[in-house]
Write a structure and sequence with these properties.
The chain is mainly alpha-helical and about 70 residues long. The protein has a domain of about 25 residues.
Length: about 70
């Protein structure tokens, strides 16, 4: 989540809500096979997504836009 300590309460809640919605959209965009890979990894979704994107960059392919 974004660092929201210096924002007023309402803005902080809005930023965090937006972050949660974005994460939910990324989860919904995954295929069944990708979701199964995520479950096997036993890591938080954000960590798993970051590692997957890094692996794509290392292999030389362009990452899919999410």
């Amino acid at each position: 989540m974004a660092n929201t300590k210096k924002l007023p309460r309402q803005e902080r809640k809005a930023k965090k809500r937006d972050a949660r919605r974005a994460l939910k959209e990324k989860w919904a965009a995954l295929t069944r096979k990708e979701r199964q890979e995520f479950v096997k990894a036993e890591k938080p979704l954000t960590v798993w997504l970051r590692e997957r994107e890094a692996a794509k960059k290392e292999s030389g392919t362009t990452p899919a836009k999410s």
